Amino acid sequence: MAADTIETFIPPQRILMGPGPSNIHPRVLKAMSEPVIGYMDPIFVQMMAELKDLIRYVYQTDNMLSYPVSGPGSVGMENCFVNLVQPGDKVVVCVNGVFGGRMVENVLRCGATPVILEGVWGEPVDPNALEDLLKKTPEARVVAFVHGETSTGVVSDAKTLAAVAHKYDCLTIVDAVTSLAGVPVLAKEWDLDAVYSAGQKCLSCTPGLSPSTFNQRVVDYVTSRKDKIQSWFMDMTMILEYWGKTVRTYHHTAPINGLYALHEALLMLKEEGLENVWARHRSNYEALRDGLEAMGLEFLVKEENRLPQISTVKVPESVSEPQLRAELLKMSSLEIGAGLGPLAGKVWRFGLMGQTSRPDYVLTCLASMEKILPGLGYPVKEGIAVAAAHKRYAAQHAAAAEKAFA
Ligand SMILES: *Cc1c(COP(=O)(O)O)cnc(C)c1O
User: Fold this and answer.
1) What's the pLDDT tens digit per position in 237-285?
2) Is-cis flag, bond preceding 42, omega within 30?
3) Strands 148-149, 15-17: parallel, antiparallel or unpaired by DSSP?
4) What is the pTM of this model?
5) How far apart are CA 118 and CA 92, in angstroms?
6) 113 alpha carbon – ligand 1 mean position (Å)
7) Would you state the pLDDT for residue 95?
8) How far apart are CA 312 and CA 97, in angstroms?
9) Structure-model confidence comparison of residues 405 and 198, the more confident one
10) What is the distance between the alpha carbons of residues 328 and 49, in angstroms, rounded to a whole number?
11) Which of 137, 217, 376, 389 is most buried by a 10 A CB count?
12) What is the Å distance from ligand 1's center to 259 Cα?
């Protein structure tokens, strides 16, 4: 390896319209470039207190134990399982996509038995089916489900699923990695027990952080466990000493600059207001949807079950799936996502998450597709998709104006 040929790495500017990461605002990137300080520095400790408040805000909760797990969403997921699942436990896992499948893996690796509620890819988890399964599985202690399945773009009814789980005395582990900030995640009102997310989806922060929240049921359960939690790093009883108290003991070196970034990203979200953030995700989704449908493309998921932040569209028979993605990257430096698992080669996934959820990105994507698709053997009338998106934005503006004057 000729190390003397290596130069500074300068990444290209991309429009990240895939399933995450999303684009990061310059304010957040600037926060990351501020000087590193010690994780016990009183100023840092103050910042952490604010960060916990901001995490409570985005989850709409007052849970004492709300903190960013150091690690990507996958670590946030594992953190919930190792703390809430003991060897020999029975855990009901709802599987309607890739990430539910990963939860099953976590249960197995905790030495527990997964009881799988097999759902349909592209459809939400069925609360009645969950209830039937829990009736037949009285030993079940935990129910785990994915609120927003990124592999299909489906949102499940977290409130109802949690209510069913509690009726049968089960704690809930909820994956809110993609759902958080794109659609409401009301941890308190819906009574969710252990919830985790990730920095790089609708929070538009750097990857590698998993803002999570745990209610008192979780804290009580974990602190009353008699056995040793199988992961040293994720042992919540030790984390409680670091994030939970004002007198801190060293556990691990926090990802300091990443936490500055999360503080800034969540602050921006709070400045915009959660409800406005949800409305922005919906508005740009509607414009994208109208544009894609104007080109004759079909969605995988029924309208009422869709996440506005991730649209899954079927690849037309004649078209090469990877070629559209390659051409979009080349023509417009724009990334979209491919299908996972059984959907590989069959769908494209268009993400409009966090800072990426902007009209100009929607319009760039649609205009580029109008240019590219005919060359891939799929005729499109020039201008048709962009016009449909513009028409949707105009209708939204008219409706907003009418509301303002009403
Ligand atoms: C992205 C994602 C994850 C994993 O997050 P990483 O940060 O990639 O580890 C987990 N669950 C869902 C629903 C996701 O979309």
Assistant:
1) 988 877 766 666 788 899 999 999 999 999 999 999 999 999 999 999 9
2) no
3) unpaired
4) 0.97
5) 10
6) 23
7) 98
8) 13
9) 198
10) 42
11) 389
12) 18
Helix/strand/coil for 196: strand
What is the rounded distance in angstroms from the CA atom of residue 298 to the CA atom of residue 296? Answer: 7
Report how far residue 169's alpha carbon sits from residue 388's, in angstroms, rounded to the nearest whole number. Answer: 49
CA distances, 174 to each of 165, 198, 240, 402 (Å)? 12, 13, 20, 38
- 166 pLDDT more than 70: yes
The alpha-helical segments, DSSP class H, found in 225-345 are 236-243, 256-272, 274-294, 321-332
Q: For residue 149, which atom of ligand 1 is closest to its CA?
A: 13
Q: How far is the CA of 198 from the centre of ligand 1 (A)?
A: 7
**Whose CA is closest to 31, among 355, 270, 269, 265?**
265
Q: Quick check: 385 and 292 in contact, CB under 8 A?
A: yes
Q: What kind and span of H or E run contains 370?
A: helix 359-372
Query: Can you give the three-state secondary structure of 88-112, one letter per residue?
Result: CCEEEEEECCHHHHHHHHHHHHCCC
Q: How many helices (H) and strands (E) does the chain have?
A: 13, 13
Count the neighbouring beta carbons within 10 Å of the beta carbon of residue 276: 11
Please indicate whether residue 20, judged by its CB atom, sits closer than 6 Å to ligand 1.
yes
Number of residues that make up the chain: 406
The 10s digit of each residue's pLDDT in 73-114 is 999 999 999 999 999 999 999 999 999 999 999 999 999 999
CA distance 285 to 281: 6
Q: Please state the atom number of ligand 1 nearest to the C-alpha of residue 75.
A: 9
By the 8 A CB rule, do 142 and 89 touch? yes
Sheet containing strand 310-314, edge to edge, reads 15-17, 334-338, 347-351, 310-314
285: which 2 tokens? 């989704």
